[in-house]
């Protein structure tokens, strides 16, 4: 167990926090290169697409800065620790990984900043990292204790269903014939596959897109193409592998459900589910669960996508709304095609505008769950707060790099 930081160490870490605001990405990019050179097996734990784009290094730099800036008031970090711990536990990050990360991160600070960091300041950062590692290991230990299983477990793809031009669902059943585990609606799993062109396993986290019922775990995966304007960044490797190379009967390795972006099933107040694109997946789990439980809670399902070709689950959603008077929908298409039917496939053109759906979606005491691209969630969160929604009632899910 690490010793508490001294007042001098706290002051030194806090005083050098601005260094990470200025040089953090340079340090963290150096860190990843250094760590993978020294411990190449750890490449199996990290998304190599995010490494290539630099987004993972930038996210780590922001996280280190936030920790340093709040070293004297860690409560200010809010839910960040729990969210990161859930991501780590889903990736099977273990206590033995923390010393490796610490050694390479602190060495990178010295190698990038040189004489700008004196020994007392470096020692303060060592102590600060040890404190952070202890916090994270403690939180993750509790998550592991409560998990349905430890590490990766083989699942059979029992069904594969095309949901739209971009999204395909995979129904996963335990290879040992046991029942699928329970989970909280909104949680995710990590799926691991070997990527031959990289020579490593690659993990990806996918929201569960169905209600917990013991029959299967369903993930619904968007096939990601190369980002526009970034020809040096390849298409989504694992999503391509799943779409093209994983058929019914295939075995995939899966970790236990994790995540703190969960529907609060103890409440009876209204629920507003707001999604963009493939962000619909955890909302499907939440709505499916409410319907399966026979809940009478008022539900507004607000979804945005380009058009009907990429709109997954649209028939199921329309049928659910028709059968349950407590469920309403507001679907926005930004690029309507001739095949899209107003009032059947979609309800509004353009982007989500809560002013148009205030009667459906701005509900007293409602909880708002947001999932989609980070800019989408930031915009929707700001719009809701601007309309008087309490920020404490707005919940977001983030995959990849970034935060809201």
Automatic annotation (TrEMBL):
Residues 150-264 form the FAD-binding FR-type domain. Gene3D superfamilies: Globins (1.10.490.10), Nucleotide-binding domain of ferredoxin-NADP reductase (FNR) module (3.40.50.80), Translation factors (2.40.30.10). Its EC number is 1.14.12.17. Residues 4-141 form the Globin domain. It comes from the Bacteria. Its cofactor is heme b; FAD. Keywords: Detoxification, FAD, Flavoprotein, Heme, Iron, Metal-binding, NAD, NADP, Oxidoreductase, Oxygen transport, Transport. GO terms for molecular function: FAD binding; heme binding; metal ion binding; nitric oxide dioxygenase NAD(P)H activity; oxygen binding; oxygen carrier activity. GO terms for biological process: cellular response to nitrosative stress; nitric oxide catabolic process; response to toxic substance. It catalyses: 2 nitric oxide + NADH + 2 O2 = 2 nitrate + NAD(+) + H(+); 2 nitric oxide + NADPH + 2 O2 = 2 nitrate + NADP(+) + H(+). In the C-terminal section; belongs to the flavoprotein pyridine nucleotide cytochrome reductase family. Is involved in NO detoxification in an aerobic process, termed nitric oxide dioxygenase (NOD) reaction that utilizes O(2) and NAD(P)H to convert NO to nitrate, which protects the bacterium from various noxious nitrogen compounds. Therefore, plays a central role in the inducible response to nitrosative stress. This is Flavohemoprotein. It comes from Trinickia symbiotica.
């Amino acid at each position: 167990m690490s010793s508490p930081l001294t007042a001098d160490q706290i002051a030194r870490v806090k005083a050098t926090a601005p260094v990470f605001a200025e040089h953090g990405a340079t340090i963290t990019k150096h860190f990843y290169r250094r760590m993978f050179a020294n411990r190449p097996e750890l490449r199996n734990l990290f998304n190599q697409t995010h490494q290539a784009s630099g987004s993972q290094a930038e996210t780590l730099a922001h996280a280190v800065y936030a920790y340093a800036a709040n070293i004297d008031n860690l409560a200010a970090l809010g839910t960040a620790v729990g969210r990161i711990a859930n991501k780590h536990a889903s990736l099977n990050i273990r206590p033995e990984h923390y010393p490796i990360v610490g050694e390479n991160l602190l060495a990178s600070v010295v190698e990038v900043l040189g004489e700008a960091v004196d020994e007392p300041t470096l020692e303060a950062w060592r102590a600060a990292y040890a404190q952070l590692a202890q916090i994270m290991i403690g939180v993750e230990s509790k998550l592991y204790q409560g998990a349905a299983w430890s590490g990766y477990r083989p699942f059979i793809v029992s069904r594969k269903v095309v949901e739209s031009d971009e999204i395909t669902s995979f129904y996963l059943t335990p290879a040992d014939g046991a029942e699928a585990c329970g989970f909280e609606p909104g949680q995710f799993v990590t799926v691991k596959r070997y990527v031959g062109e990289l020579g490593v396993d690659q993990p990806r986290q996918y929201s569960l897109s169905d209600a917990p019922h013991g029959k299967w775990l369903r993930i619904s995966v968007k096939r990601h193409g190369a980002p526009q304007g970034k020809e040096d960044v390849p298409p989504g490797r694992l999503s391509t592998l799943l779409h093209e190379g994983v058929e019914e009967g295939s075995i995939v390795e899966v970790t236990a459900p994790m995540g703190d972006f969960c529907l609060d099933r103890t409440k009876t107040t209204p629920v507003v589910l707001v999604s963009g694109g493939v962000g619909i997946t955890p909302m499907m789990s939440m709505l499916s669960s409410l319907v399966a439980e026979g809940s009478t809670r008022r539900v507004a399902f607000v979804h945005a996508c380009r058009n009907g070709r990429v709109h997954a689950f649209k028939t199921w959603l329309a049928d659910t709304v028709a059968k349950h008077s407590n469920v309403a929908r507001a679907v926005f298409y930004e690029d309507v095609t001739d095949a899209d039917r107003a009032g059947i496939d979609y309800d509004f053109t353009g982007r989500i505008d809560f002013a148009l759906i205030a009667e459906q979606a701005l509900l007293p005491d409602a909880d708002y769950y947001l999932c989609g691209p980070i800019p989408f969630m930031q915009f929707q969160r700001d719009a809701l707060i601007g309309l008087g929604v309490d920020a404490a009632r707005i919940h977001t899910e983030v995959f990849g790099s970034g935060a809201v």
